[in-house]
Amino acid sequence: MIPFNKPYLTGKEAHYMYQAVFSGKISGNGIFTKKCQYYFEQRYGYKKCLLTTSCTDALEMAAILCDVKPGDEVIVPSYTFVSSALAFVRQGAKIVFADSMGTNPNIDADKLEALITPKTKVIVPVHYAGVACDMDKIMEIADRHNILVVEDAAQAIDSYYKGRPLGSIGHLAAFSFHETKNIISGEGGLLAINDERFIRRSEIIWEKGTNRSEFFRGEVNKYGWVDTGSSFLPSEVIAAFLYAQLESMEMIQNRRKAIWAKYYDGLKDLADMGLFSTPEIPTYATNNAHMFYLVCRSLEERSALITYLKEYGILSVFHYLALHKSDYYTRHCADRPELPMCDHYADCLVRLPMYYELSDEEIGQIVEAIHDFYSKI
Ligand SMILES: *Cc1c(COP(=O)(O)O)cnc(C)c1O
């Protein structure tokens, strides 16, 4: 059986977790947390980084920092994970769903302007599969209308837009270390703060609405309740796990990229015949090999392919039911937007197994099974 995902362990996780446990400090914001945050600030140039317990939490922090209030509108692609929208809904925002591009599932920046109203407060570009949205276009529109941009970079670690790291372009950005992502800590996330206006408040929101971080730096002589917030910070045990992964970033990324290239080469003949499309990486974007997907010609063909692969012991999955058609949204919002590209990806996209330990032989088996499937229809 070839699973869809298998969390990769570098071998040093338990060692660092042991160190964290026996250091006598296992709550948050200790040595490993600082090491991880420093890693991201140094390597990618984010002005300030805070580890969180998930990307969902980082997005919730972003929604608070953007001061999203009831009545505000937030533009989110419909083809994304629930959290991209839910984090803002919890602040009372009305979600305005945007369609995907024809060439990839990212938000269509050319259709963005039409969705903006005087109430629009935030745009949330999601870098699907770690491939950049067209950030110059999005930032230009946002600046012109005085709108904040929160990058949902959950899948976008170590990926770039015109040479700039994803997560460094919007005012704020959220990353995920969920076990299905490239770099993992089981559950985990990171908020990157690029607009300096948000730095002081971000630490307070992170620490349950207290100015505890300033107190520990000796900047104030007592700490107390100064703002809203929650317990968004992970324990040192989680940060220790994550640090082991970060040390192996290069190795993990190189192997994933090799897997991606093997899929791409192995399936190119079928893609050229028009039987499905493979991911298209725009010239402004890099590929961090988070995901390898096919876009089939129809829902029926996709279902048949998934079933066929399963008979070979290969687990492929589809995902993202359109959020604008979700049970929750349709119960709470009267809007019924037409988002044909989103519907297309929701019906036709299938993700192939993608994880560090996937062997060349297994990739060969998967590629062969897909050839078999298409030779029979
Ligand atoms: C994985 C993912 C999330 C959620 O991440 P968690 O760390 O599980 O909260 C949010 N948005 C996108 C696009 C994701 O892929």
Overview of the molecule:
With 377 residues, the chain is of the alpha/beta class. Helices cover 39% and strands 12% of the residues. The protein is built from 13 helices and 11 strands. The chain has helices at residues 13-22, 31-44, 55-65, 82-89, 135-145, 199-206, 212-216, 236-247, 249-272, 299-311, 327-332, 340-348, 360-375; strands at residues 48-52, 73-77, 94-98, 120-123, 148-152, 160-161, 164-165, 172-176, 189-193, 293-295, 349-351. The strands form 3 sheets. It has a 7-stranded mixed sheet, sandwiched between helices. Strands 6-7 form a two-stranded antiparallel sheet. Strands 10-11 form a two-stranded antiparallel sheet. The longest helix is centred in the C-terminal third of the chain and has 24 residues, at 249-272. The two termini are 24 Å apart. The mean pLDDT is 98. Bound molecules: pyridoxal-5'-phosphate. The site of pyridoxal-5'-phosphate has 14 residues, from α3 and α4. Pfam families: DegT_DnrJ_EryC1 (PF01041). It comes from Bacteroides fluxus YIT 12057.
Quickly describe the structure.
The chain is of the alpha/beta class and 377 residues long.
Topology:
Layout: H1 13-22, H2 31-44, E1 48-52, H3 55-65, E2 73-77, H4 82-89, E3 94-98, E4 120-123, H5 135-145, E5 148-152, E6 160-161, E7 164-165, E8 172-176, E9 189-193, H6 199-206, H7 212-216, H8 236-247, H9 249-272, E10 293-295, H10 299-311, H11 327-332, H12 340-348, E11 349-351, H13 360-375
Parallel strand pairs: 2-3, 2-4, 4-5, 5-8
Antiparallel strand pairs: 1-9, 6-7, 8-9, 10-11
Helix pairs in contact: 1-8, 2-8, 3-4, 3-6, 9-13
This protein binds pyridoxal-5'-phosphate.
Pyridoxal-5'-phosphate binds next to α3 and α4.
